[in-house]
Amino acid sequence: MILVTVAGLPRDYADVIKDRALAIKGQESHLICPENLENGDYSEGYIKKILSEMCNNVKGLSNQKHISSVVFYVPFETPGTEELRRSLFPHSLAMPIEQLNLRASTPKMARQRANELAGYLKKKVLDARRRLGIIRHEVVNNSNKTPILLPIKSFKARSLVTELEILSAQLAENSDTQSIIDAARAKITALYPQKSKKSGGKKYFFDERNLFFEAPCIAGPNHGNKTPIENGGHIPLCTLNGISRLGGGFLRGFHYDCSVEKGNVRFSFKNCHDKDISTDKEWVNIYPNDHVR
To answer: Which stretches of the chain are DSSP H helices?
Structure first.
């Protein structure tokens, strides 16, 4: 399943996209298009509206094994556009709506522009579907080995977020998705090589605190509880970051068993909604969205 979000369109255009949702998105997809009442920018309120609608739709698709996410947005030349992009990282593939003139001086011209936009988005969704399939393969089939799923707050590493931000931009800009992922995986793994706790043992990612992030193999890396999406102080970003990474939907039971070489894990963490969590136990379960339990 793919959640397709179209952001930044004024009401008239948003209504057309909603009316033609099935033709644009195709099968096994769900499309939302929150209308922008403040045409020309992304206000804080509108960004919250986008995230809230995305979250509500994810809850409605909770029976899906994995949900990928792409957001097509109008790239206004305003600070609000950068705020929007930041709010979509690291959960969604964010792709700008480019080279389209949405200005219209007459109703006839507006309909023509809307038709052009619908055709453009249909092609973009097909392209995004291909890219998301490759990203999803990485985070599902290679989940035990890829550094791309590491939690960006709990895995203490100075360059991880920067490298993932670079990867996110490249995935949106360049169509050679597999090569981009392969290069990013190799680079991040070289920066943070895996090591074993004991001689000859399995190798795992570990951060600057020497906290090991082990994707469980015996019971399976998806045997854990699904990331909570309601109550407990959770916000929309907890849900969105708990279903996909850079657009690719991962299995929602996936988590890391985190431990140190000797003794208990005695650290403080910022969880998925920035609540301070202190631990003192043999291991801690941490999900890609930084949910800690």
So the answer is: 11-19, 21-25, 44-60, 79-87, 107-141, 160-173, 177-191, 236-241
Predicted TM-score of the model (pTM): 0.90
Integer Cα distance of 293 and 279 in angstroms: 9
Cα 58 to Cα 5, 9, 167, 252: the distances in Å are: 12, 21, 24, 12
What is the C-alpha radius of gyration for the chain, rounded to an integer number of angstroms? 20
Q: Which of 31, 227, 252 is nearest to 139 (CA)?
A: 252
Which residue's entry shows tokens 């708990």? Answer: 242
Predicted local distance difference test score (pLDDT) of residue 101: 74
**Strand partners of residue 94:** 71
Q: What are the residue ranges in the chain where pLDDT is below 50?
A: 218-219
pLDDT tens sequence across 13-59:
888 888 888 888 887 788 999 988 776 889 999 999 999 999 999 88
Q: What is the pLDDT of residue 270?
A: 80
Distances (CA, A) of 245 to 30, 143, 220, 260, 272: 18, 11, 20, 26, 14
What length does the chain have? 293
Residue spans of the domains in the chain: they are: 2-141, 147-286
Quick one: angle between helices 107-141 and 177-191, nearest 10?
A: 50
* Range 2-141: architecture per CATH: 3-Layer(aba) Sandwich (3.40)
